Amino acid sequence: LIDPALRLQPGQRGLTPEQEAEARRFAEAYIQRQLSTEPVDEEETEAFLWQAYEAAGLTPPHHIHWLDEPLELVAALAREYEWIEVDDVFTERVSHCVWDDLLRERSEITRSLRDDPSQSTDGRVRSVQRHAKANIQHRLGLRKEGKLAARVWDLIAHTLLESVQIAVGEHLAREVAGSFTHPDSDRPWDPDRIWSRESAHETCRWHSICAYDEAVDLAYLHYFDTYAVPNQAHALAHFNERVCGYWLGKEVALLVRRPRVLSRDAAGRLHSAIGKCIEYRDGWGCYAWHGVRVDEKVILAPETLTRQDWTNARNTEVRRLIQERMGQRFIWELGGCVINTGPRGTLYEVSLSTYHPTQVVRYVQVQDASSEREYFLCVPPTIQTAAEAVAWSFGLSVEAYSPAQET
Amino acid sequence: MSPHSRQGDLLFVRQDTRPAAALTTRRSNVIVAGKATGHAHRLQAGTILEAKGGARSLDITQTTRVIPEEHGPITLDPGLWLVVRQREYSLEVIRKVLD
């Protein structure tokens, strides 16, 4: 039973301090459930899925299949698309009965991936969210841009956005995107298209991990469902927090189980010093160090990291991590000599080859003003001071570089 | 040199005039996101514009902040601000800093 003081009343324009505190607690509990790695009660989850279909006025599916990781769902949905190639390892893990059942869902797959997603069964089940929002606005007299709606969005949805969609979902989206071949495989990763569903391969990817994207809106709706008026998204919200991804057809539903490992640091960033930060039942997963995606070697075998690993890393954050993981032997391994030290950092010269000592590069070691982390940036060999190096990195002369704010 | 402020690997340089070339408006509030970290510099209020070559500017009508995930926020006054990404030297090409 919910304390009446915590419930929202029609016409209410803002949250009381008690309601604010309760909304924060609600958001935190929702995040914990969404990111939990405890095995779910699959019968209960399927019951919520049935209710979600019924809430959309649809007949529930006859067959519900559970998949062990996102790439199995990508493989299952992308079978008809020859320009999407998923490694056989994942395709072979999809059971024969899934392939047989999907033969009857070809038109549904095409509709949801290419033709008209909103009219597909999948799109119609998810559309209860739109109806639920309208219902809440009507029943509570809630204005879309009003103070109460904005505050609840800030406390619930925004929190989920940071902790679930960005911290976990976006990381996972990159990992899935990099694990199968598609027309954009050779293009640089576009952060604006992480949750895009414009092309078939993006839509396959989205379905495979969509629970981390849908959680933002569903948590918002679930809050109103709990503290104001029941709404049509009730069952979908309960279902969504028990899975990683899903695709919903007329007769078949494919559900991706949550990972068995999902490790985060105190700030909520993906992190594990002893293994994969995300790992699914079949072992597929990825490594991260305080939110930075890295290779297995950086986590599991830092003692084997070499100067070559450091110089080959194109990414300054990854390079900084390699430096951090190499520990005290880093400077010795680098073999650099100090050219200049000043308030903006230290300029090093490093010989690239013992056979050709004239082949040198210069790095400026700088400290980030906010995080106090130390970075190395490669600069031209003509640079003489650390201050000149930092100014050069922004295309300015040392005289012109004088930022009013620096964080 | 025009007024400028730095946030990590981005420098925001105040522009005295608007560029003659057409700029497109980006839908997202993410100015730049890191490739390995996903850490993004987000504009709290205002519009992010993009030139054909990819250069980005911030069109700000009221004082606002750029919110990062790794750095402290900075405040920008109304006006047009050019976004300069920190670059790095390499033996092959000068490449933008990828973080």
Describe the structure.
The complex is a heterodimer of chains A (407) and B (99). By secondary structure, chain A is an alpha+beta fold. Chain A is 44% helix and 14% strand. Chain A has helices spanning 17-34, 42-55, 70-77, 88-91, 96-102, 106-115, 121-126, 128-140, 147-177, 200-209, 211-227, 234-240, 296-300, 307-312, 316-326, 329-334, 386-393, and strands spanning 63-67, 85-86, 180-181, 245-248, 252-256, 261-262, 278-279, 285-289, 292-294, 337-342, 345-351, 360-367, 374-379. Chain A is globular and about 75 Å long. The model of chain A has no long low-confidence stretch (mean pLDDT 90). Chain B is an all-beta fold. Chain B has no helices and twelve strands. Classes of the chains: A alpha+beta (407), B mainly beta (99). The A-B interface holds A 166, 170-171, 174, 188-189, 191-192, 291-294, 314-318, 361-362, 368-371, 377-380, 393-396, 400-407 and B 1, 3-9, 11, 26-28, 30, 33-40, 68, 70-75, 84, 86-91, 95, 97-99.
Key phrases:
heterodimer, A: 407 residues, alpha+beta, four-stranded antiparallel β-sheet, B: 99 residues, six-stranded antiparallel β-sheet, 12 strands
N-to-C terminal Cα separation of chain A, in Å?
47 Å
Beta-strand portion of chain B reads: over 45%
Low-confidence stretches of chain B: none
Could you estimate the helical fraction of the residues of chain B in percent? under 10%
Low-confidence stretches of chain A: none
The helix count of chain B comes to: 0
Helical segment tally of chain A?
Answer: 17
Tell me the series of helices and strands of chain B, N- to C-terminal. Answer: EEEEEEEEEEEE
The total of beta strands of chain A comes to 13
How do the strands of the widest beta sheet of chain A line up side by side? 6-7-8-9
H-E string of chain A: HHEHEHHHHHHEHHHEEEEEEHHHHEEEEH
Number of strands of chain B: 12
Most residues in contact, chain pair and counts: A-B, 39 and 39 residues
Task: Tell me the strand order in the biggest sheet of chain B.
Answer: 1-2-10-7-6-3
- Oligomeric category: heterodimer
What radius of gyration of chain B results from the CA coordinates?
Answer: 13 Å
User: Which structural class matches the secondary elements of chain B?
Assistant: mainly beta
Largest sheet composition of chain A? 4 strands, antiparallel
Radius of gyration of chain A: 25 Å
